[in-house]
Amino acid sequence: MKLQLVPARRGALWVRSGFRVFFQRPLAFSGLFLLYLVAAQVLMVLRPIGPALLFTFVPMASLGFMIATRTALAGRFPLPSVFIEPLRGGASRRRAQIQLGVIYALAMGAPFWLTNTIAGDAFDALQQAVANKKSPEDLAPLLADPSLLTGGLLFVGLA
To answer: Minimal CA–CA distance to 69: which of 101, 115, 124, 28?
Structure first.
């Protein structure tokens, strides 16, 4: 791969091209996305290792969608095997994919850890109140906690 610098106006063309490819095979891409969501939900349940594995697999899943796009452009139906195709290269390619996934997981884990360190109690209290279906009046003091805003802004900024 090689980075290509292009004018910003090409972004709109890129988005239109993406929709055009999607509508060539909407069932395939919707199925692949549903499969990705189900796998993500299963991994999120397997605490504590599941969320880390999910973050590790995000770059490979993104590449899988790129492979699915290439497959659709070639006139073929993209199958779920596109998600494991990035690992089918040689050992060095497989190692590079795993390294990229681990780096991505660490890079995404850092904002979660830092945010939890700063505003963990506020996030936990709010999550608990929402899960218990508290009234808006009961949520108001939780939402007014300054560490909630600080932690949220920090997370958005770092992520």
So the answer is: 28
